[in-house]
Protein 1
Amino acid sequence: MPALHRSEPWTLYCQKSSTALEMVTYVLCFATMLVALIDNNLAMKLYTITAIAGLLALLLRGKPRSFSSQHWLLPLAILIVGAVDLIWYSAFKVDHSPFRATYHGYLNTAKIFLFGTFLTLLVLSSKIRLNRETPFYILYAVSFIIAGYAYSVKTATGLERIDFGIGSATGAAYSIMLVGIISAVSILYTRRNHPLLFLLNIIAVYYALMLTQTRSTLLMFPIICAIALTSSYLKSPKKLFFSVVGFFILLVALVALFSKPIYHRYHEGLADFTNYSSNNNSHSSLGARLAMYEIGFDIFREAPLAFRSADERGARMQALATEHPYLQGALEFSNVHLHNEFIEAASLKGLAGILSTLLFYIALFFTVYRHRSLGLFALTLAVIGTGLSDVIIWSRSIPIIMITGIVLILFIKTNRTDRAIS
């Protein structure tokens, strides 16, 4: 009996330490997500510290009370994506390869997703409940900080398409959209759920996206927000009506304000498609994408079960482009990726790559359903929608934002279980 009494203070100490570390983990997730918008290297270091804190919190928590699929399916899917990437990297990485960027990108992705297993498992089994709504308003303010920073970058540099210093305007747009969705949806988890504030947040994010001039996000983001609005206020017809009307009025006003760059990007995309389909010219943004899809599928079809090195894929891309000159535009991106999650995964990791990506998407939707999470639903639509036109499960900044965003959106959902709308 005395031994039991002595063990109780230790158990209590572990529980308190676990709770403290868990809260530190969520704060670090928030900080890391923001840093990933502007600094890849620092974000990776912060993410590693965040994962260590999350792992320690899990270990101190002890044996889980439940092994329900709602707790482990998403972490398992994330683990599998990371493991497949690590196996692929370990099998094919060679020194002094001309495809060093591809190998390095997948090594980073493997680390981020393997570490993400701890973070998602921690939040899905969390017992922490907050009594204050301050964190929701802090998250909400992020979009306005991003919009202000985007304006300052545009003013200071005069760039036609801002890139936030992370490499490309497209990458910046994807990052802004993912963070913006988390920021916008957070206000819907407050007790008053502020439809007007939600609309203002959308406009702030859309303004920043306009400055990147990334076509896919300019189309996708309003659709996702419209779905979120409809889902959130479906049981309140009056709020739904005024929110939707206000949303479209503000959206039209903002589109009118940026009509020239939107018009230019639209006709540029139309010209790219015409050149590819009618003139067999893939030397354009959209044409190169279509050529990459065709080449990637052909490579996969040759050996569906095989893993291939980036060097082997590059050589095969060169051969196919030589055989079919209209595919030459794809070669510019042979040292990066093929701009579609499934095509990219299939061309390097075969069927295993396709299934690991598909499992990740299914696990996201399953978690949305089990937790009735509107925020995760919106984020999932963005992740999948973007993955069909580009590759975001790759490299550092966007995967970090993806994982930390999932953690934060699930954490705020668990703290709003009293809400009828989730």
Protein 2
Amino acid sequence: MDSVLMVSDMVWIQRGVAKEIPDKIKLTQDELKELIEGGGGAGAESTDNESDGEIEVEEEVEMKQVKQEKKVKQEKIEVKEVEMREEEEDDNDFEKKYLKGYDLDEDGEEAHGDNGMRGIAMYTNNKDDPYVTNNVDSDEEEEKDEIIVRKDDNMVAVAKIDKGDFTLECYVYNEADSDWYCHHDYILDAPPLCLEPIQHDPGNEETGKGNLVAVGTMNSEIHIWDLDIMNTVTPFITLGAPAKKTKSKRKKRDGSGQGHSDAVISLAWNRITSHVLASGGADKTVVLWDLDEAKPAQIIGDRGGEVQSIRWHPNESTFLLLGTMKGHVQVVDCRDILGQASAAWKFDGQIEKVLWNHFNPFTAFVTSDDGRLRYLDMRKPGQCIWEGIAHDGPIGGITLSALTRGLLVTVGEDEMMNIWKVSDTSSSIDKVHSEKLTIGELHCAQFNPDVGAVLSVGGTAADLIRVIDLTKYESVVTAFRN
């Protein structure tokens, strides 16, 4: 990874999901020192725990959760104490508050002494001056303005690999102002391979909703970060235990020691059953995680190949679409404890991406490393509705507009972005526009969930990310005018 520069994945967060003013953790001197010296990131605690094989996986997860919650609660307490001190104006404290700096004699008259200006004190900070009662901390106000996330802002989480440095970066995009900037980031301890937004927060007792992102990594763990908390150096939750920590292959009775034994290469959050996250691994298995319990709920056994891509059905909570590096495409009903596929296909080459057509949820798009784009109907296992060569080489990204019916975009390692129009009958597809982008090989693409024609693309060169408004292309506007 020392020579790799790329955006491996990116996901959009819907408007209104992110907290308007994120919580900001103040790092201690020890934590700052640890971070600077390279001991920070999600693996800081893991390194310490490797020498103690007696610490259980769930205990480590709980410790991280408790630590995170304590930091957020402490900061809220500190803010509350400051507010209470500023609002406290008890009459009994009048002299202490307003006559500080004056020396009164027994008659209550000022004793000026030799210095006639003794009562006029000089303060380096207005907050320390008792005579400034309407003090506003300009630094705090300016900082608040810089980190605020407006209701019409989208957040975009980006997984970046930069020659041995691994980060999860959070950008903000505003359609009206065309704003695009990095809001905050997190340091990762392993190469990020895939991302998935999660709007279920097991720590939120009021609404249960949150602004989380799951990161699949090379070391078999899934790190879940809370995007509404800035400056944190540890993930909110860690799912799975790396093999190097496990002294015995014997599975624990409660299942909490189970998980992937190799890299996590695909993720999918169940929007209908919101406490369930699915992950596909290089170990050829699919794991269904219970986010409330932070442990596996079900293991779906060997899929015949590394599970490169998985997607939950948009309307059915139990159906999972997956594609493997051995060319398998399967639809699995997770209620089947044996994990048998209810529909299956086998193609040459490896499957890169699978994607449900949410405008016609009986159908799905499939891309592969030979540049082929295929369209499948779940009611016709083993058959293709249509297929064709879409790129010269692997198709690393495919995305379907959330709002514009039939607007499909594919990107590939040939550095090309191709725009397609899928017919209403789904019997054909037409290329509307093709363009070579200037950010190297393209590995991911995703449409904005709130804007029909805006998408982002991740590459391997230059600025790595491109946000594209397809309404700027006349051919696209013409094709989708009616």
Protein 3
Amino acid sequence: MPFDTQDGIAPALQAYVCTDTGAATARAVLAESGQVAKAIHGGGLSGAARLLTDASPVKCILAEMGQISLPMATECVEELARVGIDVIVLGAVDDIATYRALRQAGARDYFCLPADASDILAATTAPSPGPAAAPASPAPEALRGLTIGVLGCKGGTGASLLAQNLAAHAAAPKGPNRATALVDTDLEFGSQAIDLDRDETRGLFDALRAPDRVDSTFIGATMDRISDTLSLYSGQVRGDQTAAAYEPGIAALLPRLREAFDTVIADLPRGLILRQPEVIGTLDRLVLVVPAGFAGVNAASRLLAQIRADHPDLPILAVLSDTLKDAGLRPKDIAKTLQMPLIATLPCCAPALARAHKAAKPLVTLQPRAPWSRAVRAVFDAATQPASAASALRKPRKRLFG
């Protein structure tokens, strides 16, 4: 290709292309950066790997994959990275496996053609990934985010309301003041955005489709930032979508969010736990909301049996909800049946909750001294205590009464 027109002066950014589309993209990037076409060369990624050596003054290049295989492309990237050259790869394949392989090889970024020149140019100033690091030891809970799942064992218990208020309390500037993510994982009927009078975050589905690409930049572009410390993912599938197509991404998304937030609150529907049981494995704590009725306690017993069989070390906190009076079973009888203590009771306070719904605000924000708000804080305190203190919650109590 007639692009080799170097004059001995190395531009700040050079391009190695092998197709007309790659050349046009490179021209647009160089034009936006204030450079000229003399920085465009033929040969693509493999040509760059052959031509550029330790002595090369070039520090950053755009390189088109062309027809070479992915293994060969990763070898070329590794060779260029070895001599200290940052590589932004251009290619025709749009999939996560290609992106991940090239990034792990040391590429600064990968773009599927045609690509926006501004996005590519922005990648030239992004941090270089550098060599792959050895697997790190698991971080202490104090040094990483905490993921708390909230699961109602029957509809109408107020589990979603509890998740919303736990997130609002965690993010409260005059409270814990933790960077918090509220994730509504009910992709069919989730109502967190509606209850807070926010637009649905359609970026949730982008995140579930490609959870490996979720980082701080992606989060900033796709989550609804309710406040400086509280962000939201909440959306419902449309007519041309199915929840089943996106639910497998939830188990991969939650750990990514934990890397970016101090606290992640996941509002979990019961059906999701049955369809995607691996989601439970991503949690640090599970809050189970139980009504005082036979059906609710039965459902709680079944859920606990399944969860404990698969995740015996997961701390589980049972919370009694008086929103549904049901049969009005006594708390001590419920605790005995579940073989675990009830760490709090969400009292029935319909007028206060109605005012909060009308204001589209969490009750802990609108009425922090309400009995229901005090119960929320008790749940949060129990869920965020250190793992050593929470260990008593991990296994069922063998005996509650003499």
